[in-house]
Design a protein that fits this description.
391 residues; alpha+beta; eight-stranded mixed sheet; four-stranded antiparallel sheet; 40% helix; binds alpha-D-galactopyranose
Amino acid sequence: MASKIPEVSSLVCEAQLAFKATYGGNADTAVSAPGRVNIIGEHTDYNDGFVFPMALPLVTVIIGRKTQSGLCRIQTLSEFADKPLQVAFKTPSSSAPLTRGAPNWANYIKGVVANFPGDVSGFDAVVTSSVPLGGGLSSSASLEVATYTFLESITGTKATSLREKALACQKAEHEFANMPCGIMDQFISTMGKRGNALLIDCRSLESTLVPLTDPSIAFVITNSNVRHTLSGTEYPTRRRQCQEAATVMGKKCLRDATLQDLEKHRSSLSEEVYKRAQHAISEIQRTEEAVSVLRNSDYTLFGKMMTESHNSLKDDYEVSCSELDELVAGALEVPGVFGSRMTGGGFGGCTVTLVKQECVDSLISHTLEKYSGKPTFYVCLPSEGTQQLAI
Ligand code: GLA
């Protein structure tokens, strides 16, 4: 059975109860921001390429109240967050800027407060989330974007554009989580639209909505429920290797390079850097092509491209792991499955599988039977980006 996705209203209720118990009185502001699944276009965003994510109905919710205390007080209800689950820090000033520290979960919030364009006089807040932590579905970006929307609501200061908002949240992650991520996660959490996936050109930051409303197909997310520690250290290495390959080819970034350029410079690159660039360049092309294939409802070809993307991530980019490979191989055995791939940064987390709607149950039961770990499943429709909620 697929996991039941909690209603946003029940997350708000749960948070309101905790708010009352911790701070007294009621919160008057509530916001949400979604996690995402990337359908195709992996490790392409920081190469100025294309990505194709959709926002999920799995969300981070923040409720709270503005204060004049000069303090940001936050409690998280996430059972997986590092302790303590409550923090208080002073609002930043030029003489006392915010700095990273423990607990780690609060760094994402601090990073956004530090990069918010308006004055924050203080607030009390409770955070809760249905996005699995560390599952490769962008729990961090959803926390950053929810924080930004929350600050907009309590201060009245709005970002001048949604891009500016996504970029400030990305900067928060770079500076306060020490993760040199691309723009995909914050962008889709900010700009997702119900019923659509989003083709994002990470060079121009232009995006195109692509309707995904055909009831005869489904995207099934399977969480391997493993997370290898490599994910933190390997990501910056991959980024550096891509930049190295681009520089050797005399290009600003791999978006500007072709596979012919790569062959021409092969002897000047290490085998490893060559393979990394081979993935990034081919994945950028594949993503753009795949989206036009999907627009023609050619699910067979689109699925094949998803699987090619997985193989490239596994063999050339080397960011998959045995559990993800096992999930993909198992899914491909099921009649009605068009394609399957790891999604997100890799080294654990989730796969995404395109399957005929009528075959979702057999995909789930086959995976339960074959996968050596304990998987969980989400069957999700493309959902809305961050929003203010009624409370
Ligand atoms: C992580 C990063 C994204 C992107 C993906 C890989 O999720 O936050 O910016 O690079 O990995 O596609």
